[in-house]
């Protein structure tokens, strides 16, 4: 164990180069506040929007959203992760010299990163090369869950139902060659409205709800500005349900939380970024008002989705609970799988586990303990 022999040294990494930079900062502030200082020594490591790693002195208060102001990683001592597994930590970047003196060793990394360059397998690969244990899913599961196209393919291969959709590769180029970008048969199949979204992004960034095909090109351009690969999804009327999954203790099967429901307030059209993080124009039911049979079905599909994507540590599975217009039967459709969901105490994932009997500090502690027990990952 590094540093103080009685404490575990945790590098909490946050910020990052993705459009979800601010959300990551907020989540990290909550995680830092929850780590027991008598048991853990926290090393806060911020990643700027440009990709610089810095030792941050920002506390939970500075990492919160206040009066609509979004937090951001800015200054701090420049550091770099030591790639040699024997280094086990961080080194200071000396101006004009490069990697200079060793700074500190760490026992474990908690990458509280959302979106590209954090939740997509990139930092997970870096940490594996450095030989450091870390919280969350590995390289493959992180990458596959971040890319909505491949999430859907893996879920389909496991027989897990989802809504109708199409994928536009090189979406900006597709619009240049064909402003419609979808043939009439596809439009007829999907119907209206549709949601146009980047394939590899989260927090509803870059998503547009299209209610008239005349607005489709602009919606694709908005999504393509975030990711050149774009998904077009048929809207699924019904209830929005979420469920949390945690790795089982000691190799036991994954555990699932009680599900929760997101309900939009009157006048709110859909669950976009502002509604999620700024306006607060939603109500949440934790747990959701569901029958025991519905709860069991959602929990079963959540566990199956977690395993289908080879997740580890944690995940949040998002659903639509709807009625099949042709048969009248109830459908449980998976929308997305998030391997590092929002992590403030008021985020859905911690709320669902609190309702299931696991408090926020205990949840954080369990994730850290599980990652330590698992040790460094290996491809051997």
UniProtKB/TrEMBL annotation:
Location in or out of the cell: Cytoplasm
Top-level class of the enzyme under EC nomenclature: ligase
Residues that hold Mg(2+) 1 according to the record: 318, 336
Major location category of this protein: cytoplasm
Cofactor(s) demanded: Mg(2+); Mn(2+)
Top-level division of the source organism's lineage: Bacteria
InterPro entries, alphabetized: ATP-grasp, ATP_grasp_subdomain_1, D-Ala_lig_Van_CS, D_ala_D_ala, Dala_Dala_lig_C, Dala_Dala_lig_N, PreATP-grasp_dom_sf
Reaction catalyzed: 2 D-alanine + ATP = D-alanyl-D-alanine + ADP + phosphate + H(+)
UniProt GO cellular component terms: cytosol
Record: residues binding ATP: 148, 195-197, 203-204, 233-240, 335-336
Entry EC number(s): 6.3.2.4
GO biological-process terms attached to the record: cell wall organization; peptidoglycan biosynthetic process; regulation of cell shape
Pathway: Cell wall biogenesis; peptidoglycan biosynthesis
GO MF term set: ATP binding; D-alanine-D-alanine ligase activity; metal ion binding
Keyword check for Magnesium: yes
Protein's UniProt keywords contain ATP-binding: yes
Cofactor comment: Binds 2 magnesium or manganese ions per subunit.
Keywords (A to Z) from UniProt: ATP-binding, Cell shape, Cell wall biogenesis/degradation, Cytoplasm, Ligase, Magnesium, Manganese, Metal-binding, Nucleotide-binding, Peptidoglycan synthesis
Domain annotation ATP-grasp: ranges: 152-369
Entry function: Cell wall formation.
UniProt cross-references to PANTHER family, sorted A to Z: D-ALANINE--D-ALANINE LIGASE, D-ALANINE--D-ALANINE LIGASE A
Family indicated by similarity: Belongs to the D-alanine--D-alanine ligase family.
Protein name, per record: D-alanine--D-alanine ligase
Native source species: Goekera deserti
GN (gene name): ddl
